[in-house]
Amino acid sequence: MKILHITASYKPAYIYGGPIQSVGKLCEAIAIEAQQNGIDLEVFTTTANGSTELDVDTSKPEDVNGVLVTYFKRWTKDHSHFAPELLLQVWKVLRAERNNQKIVVHIHAWWNLVSVLSCLIAKWHGVPVLLSPRGMLTGYSQNNRHSFFKSLIHKTVGARLLKYCHIHATSRQEVKDINLIFTPKTISVIPNLVQTSEKQSSYTNLNSANEPNLFRIIFLSRIEEKKGLELLFDALAHLTTSWALTIAGSGEEKYVAGLQQKATQLKVDHQIKWIGQVSNQDKFNLLAQQDLLVLTSYNENFANVVIESLSVGTPVLISDQVGLSDYVQEKDFGWVTSLDPAAVQKSLSSAADDHNKRNLIRQEAPIIIENDFNDARLVQKYLNLYQNITN
To answer: Which SUPFAM superfamilies does the protein's record reference (predicted)?
Structure first.
């Protein structure tokens, strides 16, 4: 079987957050299984790295953590990512392979010219397509940021191409969002493969002896409007518990400055520490030092950081619009809130007061996460899905 992964951005473009981690982790896990299962795996991507370009060799494929990756120069920046050489290579590969009954194109994300035009080429050659929207096929995504461009794509070719695709969703929440937009040919739910901590941290050792009553909260993600930080700030302004918030992540300077101004207006700026983007090596230690991870997003198809946090035993407080909210509720790994400042404030108070629940999560979550998000088990589900599509 040949699997061609197509994505507008790939490692090491970590500026794009969770999707980069998810796609890379999946491809690396498939690569491990490739030889044993007779799989030919390739990744086509661009040099996208936000407003800059990755410093990579575009003249030949590169081995990136065991995965054969070809980077192509893009002619346009975010969010169109127009890369003619990539599209030409997709055409050549699919033309040569179209009589092979065991080939599938796996496209990641939507609303960019790499994804849409690659899908069009695959449809032209009659090659099956698996599309992982990565949160791009929701009402929130359609109507926020570049909505005119998205509407134009959808009305011209997007709607017809989507009906050609088999859809991969990462959560039941994402399935609901997708079904509100269109009815897929097929839709399957498989969670993301997520990098988790290799060691379990001790909750008692991480609390500061100097400030044992300080409630430590962390936000670790891209800093953008959909993450609901304004909502969180409004809730924290009315929280009576002694608290400190660490914000780890990067975003557009103008938007971050606006958030900092809002924090000053609410008189909570002295309780917030902005530390910027954190490396993969450091984030687990940072998460383990906190009492609670918060993610009050307006829309998230999955949210890798929830699993990352629970893998070190740090409880979570997330909105009911986060894809993993049903999992958190089922396992009782934290608190799920509506998108209302009063409700968020109430959940924060509950989390701060319930030491027993937080201690129990600290002890139990890492073991359960290791089992539920086992790479080998999840990658087999993906391989079975590819087989079903080619059949």
So the answer is: UDP-Glycosyltransferase/glycogen phosphorylase
Q: How many C-beta atoms lie closer than 10 Å to residue 357's C-beta?
A: 16
What's the whole-model pTM score?
0.91
> Cα separations (Å) of 110 from 81, 106, 117, 123, 150?
11, 12, 10, 16, 9
CATH superfamily of this structure's domain 203-372:
Glycogen Phosphorylase B; (3.40.50.2000)
Measured in whole angstroms, the distance separating CA 382 from the mean position of its chain's CA atoms is 17
Nearest partner of 73 among 62, 92, 59, 91, judged by Cα: 59
| CB neighbour list of residue 77: distance below 8 Å, 6 or more residues apart | 48, 51
Which residue carries 């699993």 as its tokens?
Answer: 307
How far apart (Å, rounded) are the C-alpha atoms in residues 262 and 266?
6
Contact present, 286 and 314 (Cβ < 8 Å): no
The CA-atom distances, in angstroms, between 121 and each of 71, 92, 110, 118 are 19, 10, 15, 5
> Distance (Å, rounded) from C-alpha 23 to C-alpha 119?
18
Report the distance separating Cα 75 and Cα 197, nearest Å. Answer: 38
Residue with tokens 């101004």: 261
Side-by-side strand order, sheet with 62-64 = 62-64, 67-72, 40-46, 2-7, 103-108, 129-132, 166-169, 186-189
Polymer length in residues for the chain: 391
pLDDT per residue as tens digits for the range 236-293: 999 999 999 999 999 999 999 999 999 999 999 999 999 999 988 799 999 999 999 9
CB atoms within 10 A of CB 47: 19
Question: Closest Cα to residue 299, out of 156, 148, 136?
Answer: 136
Q: Which amino acid is at 331?
A: K
Q: Which helix (H) or strand (E) holds 382?
A: helix 375-390
